[in-house]
Amino acid sequence: MARPKLRDTPDLSAYASPEVAIPVRVTRKAAQDSIAAKQGSIRITVTVPPENGKVNEAVSWILATAMQMAPRRCS
After folding, report:
1. What is the 3-state secondary structure (H, E, C) of the chain?
2. Is the dihedral of CA 68, 8, 32, 1 positive or negative?
3. CA 46 to chain centre
4. pLDDT at 4
5. Could you list the mean pLDDT of each consecutive 10-residue stretch along the chain, which spans 75 residues?
6. Rounded to 10 degrees, what is the CA torsion of 4, 38, 29, 61?
């Protein structure tokens, strides 16, 4: 899978704490990949179709990029 291309990624490094649950809303099959944080929740849109875990992989990569951490640490 190709890595999502992000523009204007917000700095979410404050959310990068171990064992912290973050409310996330995901929209799949969107026009573009994006991430936005508003009032304690995160909204992510991905362009990949919902098959074989591709959406989960894309969301993990986008979250890791925004939190400035390794993608394998986001699960």
Report:
1. CCCCCCCCCCCCHHHCCCCCCCCEEEECCCCCCEEEEECCEEEEECCCCCCCCHHHHHHHHHHHHHHCCCHHHCC
2. negative
3. 8
4. 63
5. 68 76 88 86 90 89 85 73
6. 30
Q: What are the phi and psi torsion angles at 73 (to 5°)?
A: -85, -10
Q: Which amino acid, residue 5?
A: K
- Return left, alpha or beta for 53; rule: phi > 0 is left, psi -120 to 50 is alpha, else beta: left
Q: Where are the domains of the chain?
A: 1-13+24-75
